Amino acid sequence: MATIIDKIAWIHLQEGKILSTRSRGKNVYYLPGGKREPGETDLDTLIREIDEELSVAIIPATAAHVGTYQAQAHGHADGDTVQMTCYTADHHGTPTPSSEIEEVVWLTYAARDRVSPVDQIIFDHLHEAGQLH
Fold first, then answer.
1. How many CB atoms lie within 10 A of CB 7?
2. Coil, helix or strand for 124?
3. How far apart are CA 130 and CA 133, in angstroms?
4. DSSP label at residue 115
5. Which of 24, 56, 118, 131 could form a disulfide bond with 93, CB atoms 3.0-4.6 angstroms apart?
């Protein structure tokens, strides 16, 4: 039976590049964020995950929904879908890898083939909007 993986992601753009992360032992980059825990709102998940992964504090009042995207979940059975609800938000602190994150990078659209399938859709959307170079 196919499952839907509910994830929240932070879209942080700077000078036409997007902040991405790579977890230990993985060869694909993902937008920072993660799975919702029971009872959490989108904002709760965003704040918790970004603090856990990057040691930065999201400023809740600045969070803005960008879009919700779906694709085949990377590394999961065929038909398993990831639903990624994306937000932009201002933050305090400098993104630093922590927890399971091994690498923090700034990617351009040229790196599209190095990100997960759902992130590729998001990259396309941001590139078409002129935000990702």
1. 21
2. helix
3. 7
4. B
5. 56
Structure tokens at 28: 């694909």
- We report the CATH number of the domain holding residue 99 as 3.90.79.10
Please answer whether residues 83 and 7 qualify as being in contact, where contact means their C-beta atoms are separated by less than 8 angstroms: yes
Span 49-101, pLDDT tens digits: 999 999 999 999 999 999 999 999 988 889 999 999 999 999 999 999 998 89
Distance of alpha carbon 79 from the chain centroid:
21
Chain mean position to CA 35: 10
Distances 8 to 13, 84, 91, 133 between C-alpha atoms, Å: 16, 6, 16, 23
**Taking the model in full, what pTM does it have?**
0.94
